[in-house]
Amino acid sequence: MNDTADDSRPETPRSRGSGTQTVYDRLRQEILSMRLDPGSPLDEVRLSERFGMSRTPVREALLRLSSDGLVTTLPNRNTIVSTIDFASLPPYFDALTLMYRVTTRGAAGRRDPARMAVIRQRQCEFEAAVRAHDAYAMIEANREFHVAIAELAGNPYYTGFFGRLLDEGRRILRLYYSTFDDRLPLQYVEEHEDMIAAIEAGDIEKADRLAIAHAAQIVRQIQDYVARDMHKAVAIGNP
After folding, report:
1. Where is the composition biased (Basic and acidic residues) (predicted)?
2. 55 pLDDT higher than 60
3. Alpha-carbon distances, residue 50 vs 2, 27, 45, 65, 66 (angstroms)
4. Is residue 170 predicted with pLDDT exceeding 90?
5. In 3D, which of 225, 143, 158, 239 has the Cα closest to residue 192?
6. Distance (Å, rounded) from C-alpha 81 to C-alpha 64?
7. Residue 71 pLDDT > 70
8. Does 86-237 match 13-81 at the fold level?
9. Are strands 71-73 and 79-81 parallel, antiparallel or unpaired?
């Protein structure tokens, strides 16, 4: 007998917490990768049936996703995947550029061979994803590369904030990569290599210049995409 959508079944704190984490992780991944389109409905009953658990952990997962800004509860109490607010991109780009700079500068001022090895590993993963034309892997590897640089820089507040900014930008990056038919130019790989070289050399000013240039070209190309395909972008962001 299947009572997966029944809230009356008692759950231990451990099982409920595990269920909440499972639902949160899966939905977060699907939202950030655009497998769930902006504006898609998220019905608690259907989700509880899908995941084979009661509505309580589903509801708690949706609350966590809401605090992340990834889902929105409407006045009629229905929950949807948050739409993409293209009007908010300029301040987002300002914050993103600042975090590229402070984390790359900070990394260039520190020495930690173990963390440097992690950065190089993340770069290898990014290059492999680019060569495989795997957009989802590119976005994930790019995030982990820059988070690894932030971790080397050593400020956990910067690392946490930068990670969230990169997560918020995943859906924008997914739209942008689609304009290349997921064939991202190797220029991005080379820019990462230049940043690694500056960090390893301890050249703080060069690391800063490279971070500014890296952020600027990404911002410029996304702005060009939005301007060029505004009708398509708005349709995706606001279904």
Report:
1. 1-14
2. yes
3. 12, 12, 9, 18, 20
4. no
5. 143
6. 13
7. yes
8. no
9. antiparallel
Indicate if the pLDDT at residue 3 is higher than 50: no
Q: What angle do the packed helices 44-51 and 13-32 form, to 10 degrees?
A: 110
Architecture in CATH for domain 13-81: Orthogonal Bundle (1.10)
Give me Rg for the CA atoms of the chain.
Answer: 20
For residue 151, which of 193, 106, 214, 212 has the smallest C-alpha distance? Answer: 106
**What is the pLDDT at residue 103?**
98
Domain boundaries, the chain: 13-81, 86-237
| Predicted pLDDT of residue 238 | 52
How large is the angle between the packed helices 204-228 and 89-108, nearest 10 degrees? Answer: 160
For tokens 């994930």, what's the residue?
Answer: 140
**Bridge partner list, 80:** 41, 72
Q: What is the spatial distance between Cα 237 and Cα 37, in angstroms, rounded to a whole number? A: 8
| pLDDT band at 32; cut points 50, 70, 90 | confident
- What would the mean pLDDT of 75-88 be, rounded to a whole number? 88
Dihedral through CA 56, CA 59, CA 61, CA 66, nearest 10? -160
CATH number of 86-237: 1.20.120.530
Q: How far apart are alpha carbons 10 and 2 in whole angstroms?
A: 14
How many angstroms separate the CA atoms of 55 and 46, rounded? 9
